[in-house]
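We modelled the chain as a single entity of 704 amino acids. Its sequence is:
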Amino acid sequence: MPRQSRSNQANSSQLVLDLSGLTGGPGTFSGTDYQINYAIYQALDMLAQVSINPSAQLSINLEPRGIAPGDWSRWDVSFGRPLRAAEVKIHPTRDDIRAWLERIASTRHLDDEPVQFEFVHGRDGGPLHKRLDELIRAAKSCDSVERFNELVGMYSSDADVVEALASLGDHAFSLLRRMQVMLFPPLILEEQISDRSRAIAGEIGGRNLTNFLFEKFSAASNGRIRFRIGELISELALLGIELEPVATKETIHVSASGFLAMAFLQACPDPIPGEIVVQAAGTSLESLVQDLALQMSAGTVSTEPLWSIQQLPQKFKPKGLNVALSRGLSALLAYVDVHRKDAPGLSQVRNAVSLAGQGASTDPALVAQVFLRLDKLLKTLGDKREVLRVAELSISAARREDCNRTLEVIRGETHALICGRAWVFQRTGRLDEARIAAQQSLQLGEDIGWDLNTAFCKKCMGRLDRMEAERNPRSNRRVLLAQSESMLKEAASRFAEMRELEEVGDCTSLLGRTYLIMGRLHEADRSVRDAYNLVRHGNGKDFIDLVILTGELALNRGCPLDAIERYDEALKLVDGNGIDESELRARARLHRARAYAKLGRTTLALEDYATSSEMYRCLDELEWSAIAEWEAHRLRGEVPDELGSELESESFLVRVLMIRQWLDSLSKRPTSAIAFRRALPSRQRLNELIAEARRQAATETRVW
């Protein structure tokens, strides 16, 4: 069986297949097929190698035989470092062997670039071939040229031995030690190709892969063509042929734990602590570092300061991967629990979410608790869609038939309902659905006697009451705000009994916002001061919310400069999280725009409105994006009072889409104030514009 070049000996490799002189006749075609099949065999191995070590720039060159002595293109196949040069013949003749020996003897730079010489053949090559094989074994068994000369002296009367040694010349001993004669019958070669391609691409994909390579290499018989393995992989992907990384003779030194570690790293979008990788792989750090030494030296796996893996052409799916993902997720959640108040904890949220998504089908009991353990950190990232996705992941896992509904699992579902589903729905305007989720959580929590969850539900309901009062100022506003005050006070009291002081602070902050809406500014100020003493200062979501609320109070008191100072502070805190697309950032920008507008700094206000709108759009929060854009239109004087009144009952997204249409229709008309007012649409035209805006809003809006 041909021996493969080790990829840890070089980061690049070439295979050169000589197709010279192979024209005409069935016998010649048989030789061509044999050489092409050998190239396919090597290519399949290289495809597997790249999956383990993508930094190795592997390629295959198919070209005519060179002319100059020592030219490596003279060899049927050559590849690797140290270089291996192989003559590939299906029916070797005595002349073929003589020519091979002569080329070896004439090879230049032998000392500068040690070369391994191989003669790959499909059938026995006669007496000279057999004697050559014996000479090679003899040279490799001797530790000195003197011992070799003594040994072969016994064959001085053998014409084949004499001819072989004469062909190699004075360096026969050193050259023979670099040589190997290998029998590789065509049927065995074809079987190996079939087995390897099936292992890499499956039954059907393997056949398609072999056919693809055969067509590629056959087409190269007319001239030199270089095939880079990475480019071949890209072409295969376009054809829908997916490759599975498998162990080869190049990668067999990687243990099962090593493959599990690499597969685990592929499942993590961000760098992850090495201790988590070790636990996921079920091994020791020392063993894992030894197993992945090649990948680390090549840069495929990085370990400083955290562990990560390069993007590879294929995904690893080793045996035991699901168990490794579960072990890793469990270890990572424990790590986050310890570091939840520090940057390292926040940096691992995306990894935990990714692992939970991939392990939901195999460990539902663990996934059911993921939202509960990531809640605050998820919200700090500022992506409500992601908060909802993880909450739904935990809820679905807890409700699976194969999930053992322990107390921890039920708590996970209960918390995901109130602090995930209801939390997102109330912040995206789906207040009725939020209230349903809150009631479900409240009932489930009371069934298991979980007082902490009851406090969360009361807090959520208090916020819902205030939001409904803001949405419908003419409908039960006073009653709803009174209910909000009562619910938030009850929630704060419950949290205080359980010594959950940060939650007491959050309730107090929410109570301050309720008082702000009620116009009870003195009580709002007092609530904010109390909240500052309870909420942990830093770049956490609750504290940033409190800073933004402080700015709103300042603006409401007629102090826009103080408000801007608070919004600037909030933005700096968000920057400290290292999160680009954060809802907190968009909200702070929106409020700062309002403060700038109060000061008459229109340019700065419009810049913040535009930035906030775009941020909300990136977060797929189209209604909030439209609010920022609508206020910008009004600031520019593009919304006449009459038109604003007509649109008051519409969503902000419909308002913005309608105003865009109307302004576009006016783009070529006079823009004086009088002409602008006279251009107001008729009742019929207004209804048409609103109807069109509603249709467009329906196409743009996706239910989370």
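As a brief sanity check on the tokenised model: The chain has a mean pLDDT of 85. The chain has 34 helices and nine strands.
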